C-alpha cells in the first residue's frame, strides 16, 4: 500500500511554488501540456462530461486543462505542497477540481470501476513499484475506459537529453530530479499493462526543437513518450 518514495515527494514539494511559472523550473511541463491534452482528447474521443482521474497531478497543469475541456476531474498527489498549490490555482481559475492527497492504491479501494479516463503523466519513474500504480489504475477504470501514461524511455539519448541537458546544462529541472535507472522502456511498460488485459491503442514521443524552443508529438519515443490504453468492454478478471 505504501508505494511512496519520500525523497521523490520532497523533490516535488520543493518545486511546488514554481508549478505555474511558465518560465520557471516547470517550463518543460508547460510546453508539453497542450500536447498531452491533445493526445488524451484525440484518443478518448473527447473528455467532456466524462469522469477523469489525474494520478500524480502535481500543481494541476493537466488537471486544469482537462477540467476546461469539460471533464469531471478528480486529481491525486502525495506531495502536500503541490496539492495546496493546485487547489489555490483551481480556485483562482474557478474550476471545480476534486484534489486529494492520497495514493492511487488507496483510491482504488474506495472507487473501483469509477473513471472513464485516467491519466498518469511523468509519475511512474518516481515510485518504487510502477506495477502497483498500474494495477490501481486498471481497478479504477470502467470497462471500455482509457488509461493515458507518459514516462521516460531508458536509453542513452534520454540520459543525455533528460538528465545532462535538462538538469545539468539548461537548468530546466533541479539536478537530481530524475534517475536514469528508474526510466521505463515502452516494451517494459506494455509488458506490465498486458498483465491487466489493457489494449495498447497508440504511442507517441515528444521531439524538442531548440531553434523554436518548442516540443511536438513525434514517432521518436527514445526520450519522453505517451501511451493510450483501453480497458476491454467485456471485463475479464484481470485485476
Automatic annotation (TrEMBL):
Pathway(s) annotated for this protein in UniProt: Cofactor biosynthesis; ubiquinone biosynthesis
Reactions that this protein is recorded to catalyse: a 3-demethylubiquinol + S-adenosyl-L-methionine = a ubiquinol + S-adenosyl-L-homocysteine + H(+); a 3-(all-trans-polyprenyl)benzene-1,2-diol + S-adenosyl-L-methionine = a 2-methoxy-6-(all-trans-polyprenyl)phenol + S-adenosyl-L-homocysteine + H(+)
One Pfam family this sequence matches: Methyltransf_23
CDD domains: AdoMet_MTases
Molecular function in Gene Ontology: 2-polyprenyl-6-hydroxyphenol methylase activity; 3-demethylubiquinol 3-O-methyltransferase activity; polyprenyldihydroxybenzoate methyltransferase activity
Listed NCBIfam families: UbiG (TIGR01983)
Protein name per Swiss-Prot or TrEMBL: Ubiquinone biosynthesis O-methyltransferase
Methyltransferase found in the keyword field: yes
Organism this protein belongs to: Neiella litorisoli
Enzyme class: transferase
Keywords: Methyltransferase, S-adenosyl-L-methionine, Transferase, Ubiquinone biosynthesis
One BP term from GO: methylation
Family according to the record: Belongs to the methyltransferase superfamily. UbiG/COQ3 family.
Protein task: O-methyltransferase that catalyzes the 2 O-methylation steps in the ubiquinone biosynthetic pathway.
Protein residues bound to S-adenosyl-L-methionine: 36, 56, 77, 121
EC number: 2.1.1.222, 2.1.1.64
Entry-linked InterPro entries: SAM-dependent_MTases_sf, UbiG_MeTrfase
